[in-house]
Amino acid sequence: MLVESNGKLAHGPAINEYGYYVGRVEANLYWVTDGAYQSAFLTTSDGVVLFDAPQSLGHNIQRAVNEIAAANRVPNEVTHLIYSHHHADHAGASSLFGRSVTRIGQQETRRLLLRDDDPARPAPEKTFVDRLTLEIGGERIDLAWHGSNHSPDNIFIHLPDHDALMLVDIVTPGCVVVCQSNVPADVPGYIEASAAALTYRWKHFISGHLGRLGTRHDIATHRQYIADIADSSRKALDTVDPAPYFARHDDNTWAAMSRYLDAVTAIAAAPVIEKYTGVLAAADLFTANTTFHVMQSMRLDLGYGPQVHP
Predict the structure, then answer these.
(1) By three-state DSSP, how is residue 275 classified?
(2) What radius of gyration, in Å, describes the C-alpha atoms of the chain?
(3) Contact at 8 Å (CB) between 166 and 51?
(4) Cβ atoms within 10 Å, residue 57
(5) In the list 257, 268, 283, 307, which could disulfide-bond 236, CB 3.0-4.6 Å?
């Protein structure tokens, strides 16, 4: 994932010669990153519980596990793999851990992976609908599905004994939402997911992306950023008159609509870019794209904007 323009706001620890960094979150919970993607794992007396297997980390996940296991003299075998959701960029290295691993995910994750039939992402054998509490090697892991957000199956992974929450592709700490990889079809669900994250007790946030862990302040900043986009979009929808665009392209409705939406997006995004440049990395690169998605959701999901023809 390429993030320019104040990218240091999202930078974390230095990557080693193999292309990864592994560090302790709390106690026996660790995280791994290559600066673009993140995975996490618990070391237990019964083996290792892995959370996501991103493609870009690949074999470096096991190298990180081996490093920690050797230092702490604990087992290095991955016995369980929990999917945050079905997307290949976060699950595409799953097959590296073989068939004997117990894979766990939301029931929709299983349906989607069976549909996609990707040998790199075996479908989870153990599934749940809304909530599942796991006890593995003496460790408690709470899984919850709060509805569609980034994807139909994206879940909350809470480790209460480690003061940590893993929620992937919702907030990128220190950075704005990146292109369309974060903003989903279900924009209202996506926006509510960050609010739900703050209802949990946690100190450490594992976002699935970029080079550092997140904080509650990161979530709050993200929520304000999205709220500012929504507020600016309302103002633009209220003030940009579509009539001139349709008059100019009276023989091409699609061209007219495209020009109108582009104008609304540009006007709505401009003050948000100005406010968050230097606050969140890549504000100038990706805010317009995110604004378009939020604005379209307001029109289509919430019914905001020009009303029924008189």
Answers:
(1) helix
(2) 21
(3) yes
(4) 25
(5) 268
pLDDT of 250 above 80: no
To 10 degrees, the CA torsion angle through 88, 89, 91, 96? 100
Q: Are 249 and 256 in contact (CB under 8 A)?
A: yes
Per-residue CA distances from 296 to 61, 113, 234, 241, 276 (Å) = 38, 29, 11, 16, 21
Average pLDDT over residues 258-269: 94
Tokens representing residue 30 in the block: 């660790």
Q: What is the pTM of this model?
A: 0.93
List Cα–Cα distances, 235 to 64, 183, 243, in angstroms: 49, 21, 17
- For 30, residues 6+ apart whose C-beta sits below 8 A from its C-beta are 22, 23, 24, 40, 41, 42, 43, 64, 68
Q: Measuring CA to CA, how many Å separate 124 from each of 80, 95, 104, 149, 216?
A: 10, 12, 5, 20, 31
- Give dist(CA 10, CA 215) in Å, integer: 12
Res. 182: pLDDT tops 80:
no
SS3 307: coil
- CB neighbour list of residue 81: distance below 8 Å, 6 or more residues apart: 49, 50, 51, 53, 94, 97, 101, 102, 103, 104
pLDDT of residue 29: 98
Torsion of CA 118, 121, 122, 123, to 10 degrees: -90
CA separation for the pair 255, 277 (Å, rounded): 31
Paired with 80 in beta bridges are 49, 102
Asked whether 94 and 57 are in contact (CB, 8 A), the reply is: no
Largest alpha-carbon pair distance within the chain? 74
